[in-house]
Write a structure and sequence with these properties.
Layout (H helix, E strand, L loop, with lengths): L1 E6 L5 H8 L19 E7 L2 E9 L11 E9 L8 H15 L4 E7 L3 H6 L3 E9 L3 E9 L1
Parallel strand pairs: 4-5
Antiparallel strand pairs: 1-2, 2-3, 3-4, 5-7, 6-7
Length: 145
């Protein structure tokens, strides 16, 4: 059975590292703002084993006019659990959380390889691709709620 629940930032590292920071030190999995009160981390558990994570930051991007915005960071599903709908479940969980908290827009920097996944969930690209040092090419994506 799958359960999504809020978890402390430290519990995201065992999923962030192999998926998002492969071959990098565990310290690279610590994001600025991870432990402030307005940040929420959600874990997807399959048979009580953490297999996916997503973090939601109360963060505005000046490109967008909406007053209440949230940024998704660190969305990751362990490799042998990918392409089974778990990522979609985590993103939809964040969308529902945002809607219930009157957030108007979700935005994030998506890796090029993940753009198709987010497009299927009705996220749009704005601007040109850009490089994040030591991580790779990304696109700014968003969805108005």
């Amino acid at each position: 059975m799958n359960i999504i629940k809020e978890i402390p930032s430290k519990e995201t590292y065992p999923v962030r590292q192999p998926v998002l920071r492969k071959d990098k030190p565990i310290e690279s999995c610590i994001f600025e703002g991870d432990d402030i009160e307005s940040t929420h981390h959600f874990g997807l558990f399959n048979d009580e084993k953490l297999i996916g994570i997503i973090s939601l930051f109360k963060q505005s991007n000046l490109i967008f006019a909406e007053k209440d915005q949230a940024q998704i960071r660190g969305m990751a599903i362990l490799e042998n659990n990918q392409k089974k709908g778990f990522g979609e479940a985590l993103v939809k969980h964040c969308e529902n959380y945002c809607k219930s908290n009157k957030t108007e827009l979700i935005w994030f920097n998506a890796r090029t390889a993940a753009v198709g996944f987010y497009r299927k969930l009705n996220y749009e690209i704005t601007g040109k691709p850009f490089d994040i040092k030591d991580v790779g090419e990304h696109y700014l994506m968003f969805k108005k709620l």
